[in-house]
Amino acid sequence: MWIADRWKDYCVIDCSAGEKLEHWGPYTLVRPDPLVIWDTPKTDKGWKKMNGHYHRSAKGGGEWEFFDLPQEWTIHYELPIGKELTFHLKPFSFKHTGLFPEQATNWDWFSKKIADAKEKNPDCEIKVLNLFAYTGGATLAAAAAGASVTHVDASKGMVTWAKENAISSGLGEAPIRWLVDDCVKFVEREIRRGNHYDAIIMDPPSYGRGPKGEIWKIEESVYPLVQLCTQLLTKQPLFFLINSYTTGLQPAVLTYMMSTALKDFNGTVSAEEIGLPVTSNGLVLPCGASGRFEGR
What we know:
The chain is of the alpha/beta class.
């Protein structure tokens, strides 16, 4: 398992009975997590004195209950390359805060790969494509390491949020292209334009809709998209990263899919569950899976 264990401003304190207790900077939140199927004693005082609690409805969805929580605040993350990222957080629909902290384990991995490549050849441009880019965690990590990044998400609000994170991280002038677009259609256009990238990151949702109502179902759509993306890779790509929160896309499935789609490129594929350490007991909370292609 790849574990995001370098956070200073975030931690999972405890998890029980379908919920997790978290520190986000100075604030404590309780949010639902369907993977928490155990019911252990909730002894930490945070369970009774939190700043925000997302209550899931039996009919689907849910709503936030707040106790002295600001509308927005920031937390920081230091990459292993010595660069600090700043993220704006704000509770919004369906339990989210605007950040998936478990992804830090991937930021660590590829930021070091980019920085090492830049050190070997300072004049080379490393072009990274980030699809389903959300609020820009991966975009900022890649840009901080010295890459030129194309950030694509179908939500205008998410792209605006990502720009705010970039400015707060000192990356307001970094070479980042911000695009509100359907990811599949963007990739198809980039193929027609003859554009290529040294690395591709994708964090596809299990289900979603594009800006014009395009339907995305990950089990049906992800492999054709990966096949399309191989046409955008340079002859010797640096890496390809796929994240999944869908139960069916387990590490072995990601390994098989990526090994098949990327068989013509010189490199290795590995996949693991990703997780967050739980401070109360030393165990690790699983948070999905990631597949990594690493060029030789």
